[in-house]
Amino acid sequence: PRRRPPPAPRRAGSGAAAGHRLRGRDSTLDTVLRLFAQALGLPSVDPDDSFFDLGGDSLIAARVMAEVRERFPVELKVKALFSAPTAADFAELLDEESATAPQPPKE
Which residues neighbour 49 within 8 Å (Cβ) at sequence distance 6 or greater? Predict the structure, then answer.
């Protein structure tokens, strides 16, 4: 049997984000990173940067949450972003909420 190659080295500062990748949560984290960057007018956002430290405020947070509700089966209030202000933490919260959200009936 062939041996698997060793895992790729972790990027500096990607602790929480690396956990998402190990658990297969790339799509949620990538979506949140894009939403944060777009809302803040930045080219990119690091998974461990705080939305509010990057210039986010309650009005921008409300816009982000409107986008989140369109893309994910969750009903989170704006205060959720205050309790999980990094993209990595917010993506984890979204995954947890999505997992427990009622699913629409299948046809």
Answer: 86, 87
Question: Per residue in 40-97, pLDDT tens?
Answer: 999 999 999 999 999 999 999 999 999 999 999 898 999 999 999 999 999 999 999 9
Instruction: Tell me the pTM.
Output: 0.71
Contact present, 72 and 98 (Cβ < 8 Å)? yes
CA-wise closest residue to 16 among 47, 58, 42:
47
Closest CA to 45 of 70, 21, 13, 71: 13
For tokens 């430290």, name the residue: 53
